[in-house]
């Protein structure tokens, strides 16, 4: 047997709105957790323990892969892992 609850229409609409907000937040969290993290130039340099100049030289020589959109540089986790494997370096990636 189901319980029946009588609410003013404004309360019902507030509850519906709250549920909708929760569903939207959950969808955003799910999308964010599925998004690939791209490391910044600073993070890359810290992980590899190199200077920004060395990172720039490696990019120019094709030693490490990267993504560039306009002036923004990012490194994929697999770019860093491939570089580490190639040179036998252990890196701690999140």
UniProtKB/TrEMBL annotation:
Name it.
Answer: Helix-turn-helix domain-containing protein
Helix-turn-helix domain boundaries: 38-83
Q: Which organism is it from?
A: Spirosoma profusum
**InterPro entries per UniProt:** DNA-bd_dom_put_sf (IPR009061), HTH_17 (IPR041657)
Top-rank lineage group of the source organism: Bacteria
Instruction: Give the SUPFAM superfamilies listed for this entry.
Output: Putative DNA-binding domain (SSF46955)
């Amino acid at each position: 047997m189901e319980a029946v609850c009588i609410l003013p229409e404004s309360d019902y609409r507030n509850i519906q709105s709250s549920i909708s907000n929760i569903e939207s937040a959950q969808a955003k969290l799910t999308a964010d957790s599925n998004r690939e993290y791209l490391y910044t130039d600073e993070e890359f340099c810290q992980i590899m323990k190199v200077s920004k100049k060395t990172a720039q030289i490696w990019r120019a020589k094709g030693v490490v892969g990267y993504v560039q959109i306009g002036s923004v540089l990012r490194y994929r986790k697999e770019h860093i892992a491939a570089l580490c494997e190639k040179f036998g370096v252990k890196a701690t990636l999140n």
